[in-house]
Specification:
Layout: H1 2-21, H2 23-30, E1 31-32, E2 46-47, H3 51-68, H4 81-102, H5 107-125, H6 135-141, H7 145-165, H8 172-190, H9 194-211, H10 223-244, H11 250-256, H12 258-273, H13 286-298, H14 301-323, H15 328-349
Antiparallel strand pairs: 1-2
Helix pairs in contact: 1-3, 1-9, 3-4, 3-9, 3-10, 4-5, 4-10, 5-7, 5-10, 7-10, 7-12, 8-9, 8-10, 8-14, 9-10, 10-11, 11-15, 12-15, 13-14, 13-15
Length: about 375
Amino acid sequence: MVLSFFIALIAAFVVASLLVLTDPWHSSFSADSPGSGPQKLHLRPTPRVGGIAIMTGFVLATASTRIQAPVEIGVNAPLWLSAWLVVAIFVPFAAGLIEDVTKSFGARLRLLATFVGAGIAYVFCGAALTRFAVPPLDALLALHPWVSFVLTLFCVGAIANAYNLADGLNGLLAGLAIVACAGLAFVAAQYGAPYLAMASAALGAATFGFAIFNFPRARLFAGDGGAYMIGTAISLFAILLCGRHPEVSPWFAFVLVIYPFVDTTGAIVRRVVNRRPIMEPDADHLHTLLAAHLTSALGSNGRNVASLLIVTTAGLFILAGIVWHTNTVMLVALSASFVTLYVAVYRRIMPARPAMIKMSDSGAGAKSA
């Protein structure tokens, strides 16, 4: 697993370096233009194809693991598991990358791609939701296998889209992914699931290799390809972990993705209340408002401080989730505490919302939606 970790890290770093160095050759189609949406906070056209680096690192690490252990990896992990899991993750990555390059691959098509990826993982990898630890939902899951199939697709699509919406500040998406992958890898290792531990660690390492070029100064964005890939992978890893190891509460999976999920839910509620299209982007995400608020007080460094604050807070909740990963009651209480904190911070900064300040060269990440 250590070798795979370093392969993912180095491969992602090398590919990200090449993408940055060759920027003049591909920026005409790969760059994200400033001011192209209310959520675009950067000033300089910046490539949004960093997902290529993350995907490359992850795939090479997965392949190296298969070479090291060609017969079987992990409990109940047949030889073809890693290949189909990579395919499942690649589908939403490819859809996001098409959007990054063409700027014309609609949000509904990208969401459909996450459903396709989740369907592949459901059929070929056994990535199926089997329980929520919520009696009504568990009873619903028990009705028919199709219910589990549909809910699995919905949850994977929702989390993938949530990570895409969280991609709004330098280092935010990468930081959230790294802390979630660290939590997944640690718990998977405790339950004798080396493949899941390796896959989670490899994804985190590949994301870190990319993040070097995304924080504190953004020379590369993960783009939709990177965001959808990360969100799909983390949700599938969590489903596999909870499905194969009933000791792990499904609420641990929720804690792993708590900031993207809560912020996306808040965005949906906000748009419904304001009678705006749910898929319409805006600049009212908590991370965007917090960045503007801190920028007004601290200057341009405020945006990076906002990213660090959110990632650190999410990381602390994930750490607590690791401690209580078998205790559903404590995990529910932990989740409720995060929601309370989120609402309190949002209500405090929203009424005094500062005017959005355009990002300097060391400004925020690619976008949120």
